[in-house]
Design goal:
Helix content: over 70%
Number of helices: 6
Oligomer: single chain
Structural class: mainly alpha
Radius of gyration: 16 Å
Number of strands: 0
Distance between the termini: 45 Å
Order of helices and strands: HHHHHH
Strand content: under 5%
């Protein structure tokens, strides 16, 4: 059953993104930013963690999870270190993902020939 709920929730997040691009005519960059902000707002309201508990990877894999991670890290570090923790918490939680994207992007550029 967890696979079905992950598929449905992850699919709905993707459908929302596709609707934003097709119907609302947002660019992919605007759509991605909107989904990150939506994940951040949902985490700020306390609604994203129950969604993760229900859907598992269906809620942690899409881009909305990045917004969730930003807010979650900032709030946790703000409790521990005060106001400066807001900035350090954002970098501490998301640095592994951003570093991996940069490193894998570099290796992909070595393997594939870009068109242009």
């Amino acid at each position: 059953m967890i696979f079905l709920s992950a598929f449905i929730v992850g699919g709905l997040i993707c459908v929302i993104g596709q609707i934003l691009m097709d119907v609302v005519k947002l660019t992919p960059a605007h759509t991605m930013s909107t989904l990150v902000v939506a994940g951040a707002v949902l985490d700020g309201l306390g609604l994203y963690e129950p969604l993760i508990d229900f859907a598992g990877a269906g809620a942690t894999v899409p881009i909305t999870s990045f917004g969730n991670s930003l807010v979650h890290g900032a709030m946790a570090e703000a409790e521990a270190s005060g106001i400066i923790g807001v900035l350090t918490g954002i970098f501490e939680v998301t640095s592994a993902g951003i570093s991996a994207a940069i490193i894998f992007g570099f290796f992909a550029s070595l393997v594939f020939k870009p068109k242009g």
